[in-house]
Amino acid sequence: MTVQTVPMLDEIPVADELLRRIERFYYREARLLDREAYADWLTLLDPGIRYWMPAMETRKRGDQRGPWTDGEMSYFDDDFAMLRVRVARYEQPSAWADNPATRHLHIVTNIEAIETGTPGLVRAFSCFENVRNRNEKDQDIIHGRREDLLKVGDGRITIAERRILIVQNILLSKNLNTFF
Hints:
By secondary structure, the chain is α+β, with helices and mostly antiparallel strands. Strands 2-1-6-5-4-3 form a six-stranded mixed sheet. It has helices at about 15-35, 40, 80-90; strands at about 45-55, 75-80, 105-115, 120-135, 140-155, 155-165. It is globular, with a radius of gyration of 17 Å. It has a single domain (about 25-165), classed as Nuclear Transport Factor 2, Chain: A, CATH 3.10.450. Helices cover about 20% and strands about 40% of the residues. The chain is built from three helices and six strands; from the N terminus they run H-H-E-E-H-E-E-E-E.
């Protein structure tokens, strides 16, 4: 699947009941990530997922490429198999970057969902703040937006695509041992 941007004037919001389900889904996802319940978090992802966080570049407003370009540098461009590898790494004793454990806080807000025109697929937008604290003084705060393609059906919601767009041009974090 390819992420498509729909002109804002043509957007059709999902029904309020579905929007509430999507909000609850995102709040549960944040709680799982905060608790480092990564195996449970993986169950929220579609096996065909693209989990992509492009690097942001400072470009002039007239540059048609915008602040990021598919195929250029990214922090993550993972499929489900790679996400499973990353999750499995946290469970290894050699994951010294997470010992002692990182304390996470995921705040999710500005949740919107629009129809895609394809039954069972919904485009969702959200903003986040990801706070990570380690040891006594290591703290990172990353802000951004997420643009997701959600599969909705059979009583569940899964993330088929996630594009993570951070506001920072340069990340000063020592590592990116987190999910967004």
